[in-house]
Design a protein that fits this description.
Layout lengths: L23 H4 L7 E3 L12 E3 L2 E2 L6 E2 L4 E4 L2 E6 L4 E2 L1 E4 L7 E9 L6 E9 L9 E6 L6 E7 L8 E7 L6 E7 L4 E5 L2 E6 L8 E9 L9 E11 L12
Length: 244
Amino acid sequence: MASAPSGTASAPPASTPSPNGTQAAVAQGWGSAIDGDEFNTGSTPDPARWQIYSSPGNAGQGMRTPAADTIANGVLTIAGNANGDTGGLAANFGRQKYGRWEVRMKTSAHDANYHPVVLLWPDSNASPTCTEVDFAEGTTDTSSISFFLHYACTGSTFQTLATQALDTTQWHDYAVEWTPTAVTGYIDGVPWFRDTAHVPHESMHLTLQLDWFPTAAPTAPAQMNIDWVRLYAPAAPPETQHLD
């Protein structure tokens, strides 16, 4: 992935995440969730709530199969095997422009060929700007998490990037707040990413994926675990000032 253009994102100094996973919704006062999934019923994702992938994998590599997505003990698991068969699902709820999403996730000590990613994806696959908001993406190991804000289809600079040192094998709460003027990322209630120069302005929805990026090295099985996902109302616009 390309490097970020300078001056378009800010990543405050790394902070030690709260051991109990402080939620951005609580720390930032977002109020009660208006939608989401606690994964407390059934053994597979609810097809009325989720579009469950059954298709070729990332960049046509491997396969995404519904069998990779399972629920047990209140946790969704998306698993990838040694052959690159993995899973993913897209929310049928919360398809909107602007809002706040929060996801509690941890990963296994995953293979470097697997990238767990929590993102917002355009409702229209024909996005003119190839918009994508990857607000929690693991890459080659479990010692960091990245935020990628894609805002162009071509060119030498097409995304804003920030990376935070973090043990992703522990539970953490990852959130994004998307307003007409900024995209802000949070980990355990602490803001760590912000871009005001490349804000998307098209309807999007939450997606959970374990993407396979095969290399010459053998692939080992991996998984990502999701405790819950929650959607919060967009921030209220400032009150219009009236002059008497």
